[in-house]
Automatic annotation (TrEMBL):
MF GO annotations: protein serine/threonine kinase activity
Organism: Neobacillus cucumis
Record's keyword terms, sorted: Kinase, Serine/threonine-protein kinase, Transferase
Designated name of the protein: Serine/threonine protein kinase
UniProt xrefs under InterPro entries: Kinase-like_dom_sf, Meiotic_Drive_Suppr_Kinase
Length: 219
C-alpha cells in the first residue's frame, strides 16, 4: 500500500472529491451520498461521512466527511491510539476531509439479520475483545451497534470507531448483546428467516427514540 499511496491520493483529489456530493436530510439518519464517478463505488454511509472504493485498489477505502469536519481530526487520533489490531481497520493516510483506511470485508450484523445469515457467538466475542483492547489504550467504545460491526468468515470486526473519543457510557452494544442472547439465539439463530428491512429499521428507529425519551425523563 505504501508504494501506491501517492497515486491513490491523486485519484481521490482529482476523480472522487469533484464527483460526489454529501448532504444532510435529518440529523438522526445517515448522510445522503450522490456519486457521479464511474470509477469509485459508494460502499457505505454513516452519520458524518460516505465510504468509497476504487476498483484498482480493492484493499483500501476512502472515508469522506460531509459534515462536522472537526470529527475527522478526532477520528485520526483514535486510529493512532488503536495502532494495528485485528479487530479494527487501519489508518494509511488522510487529507483535509478524508481518511484512507484498510478495507474490512464482511456483512454488518444489521444486514445479516435482514438476509437471514446466522451470527455465531464467536462474532460477538471477537467484538467484545476488540472493545476491551480499545479501552486498554485509553479509548471509550461509543456508538457501537449493528450497522458498524461486521462479520467475515465467522469472525467479528468493528468498522466505525469515530466516536471512541467521547466520554460517558454508551449502552448500545450491551443492549444489542442482550437482544442477541435473549431473543436472537433462542428464537432466530437455528432457523434464521430473512426479516424485511422495514421491520429491522423500524426496530432500530424505535430503539433510538426510546433511548432519547428515557434520557429526557431521567434528567
Amino acid at each position: 500500500m505504501q508504494m501506491n499511496i501517492n497515486k491513490y491520493v491523486n485519484l481521490i483529489e482529482t476523480e472522487l472529491l469533484s464527483n460526489i456530493n454529501l448532504s444532510v436530510i435529518s440529523p438522526f439518519d445517515p448522510i445522503v451520498v450522490e456519486n457521479r464517478s464511474h470509477l469509485w463505488k459508494t460502499i457505505g454511509c454513516g452519520n458524518y461521512a460516505g465510504v468509497f472504493l476504487h476498483e484498482s485498489f480493492p484493499e483500501v477505502v476512502v472515508k469522506v466527511y460531509g459534515r462536522n469536519h472537526e470529527e475527522l481530526i478526532k477520528e485520526i487520533e483514535v486510529y493512532k491510539k488503536l495502532g494495528v489490531h485485528e479487530s479494527f481497520s487501519r489508518l494509511y493516510g488522510y487529507g483535509e476531509n478524508y481518511l484512507i483506511l484498510k478495507k474490512l470485508e464482511g456483512i454488518t450484523l444489521f444486514n445479516a439479520v435482514i438476509k437471514g445469515v446466522q451470527i455465531p457467538k464467536l462474532v460477538i466475542e471477537d467484538i467484545d475483545r476488540g472493545l476491551e483492547y480499545a479501552r486498554s489504550v485509553g479509548l471509550n467504545p461509543f456508538d457501537v451497534h449493528g450497522k458498524n460491526v461486521v462479520m467475515y468468515e465467522g469472525r467479528g470486526y468493528i468498522v466505525d470507531i469515530s466516536d471512541f473519543y467521547k466520554q460517558g457510557y454508551c449502552r448500545k452494544w450491551d443492549d444489542l448483546k442482550k437482544a442477541y442472547h435473549k431473543i436472537y439465539r433462542p428464537f432466530l439463530y437455528k432457523y434464521h428467516p430473512p426479516i424485511p428491512f422495514t421491520v429491522v429499521d423500524s426496530i432500530r428507529k424505535g430503539y433510538r427514540t426510546y433511548r432519547r425519551v428515557k434520557r429526557i425523563l431521567e434528567k
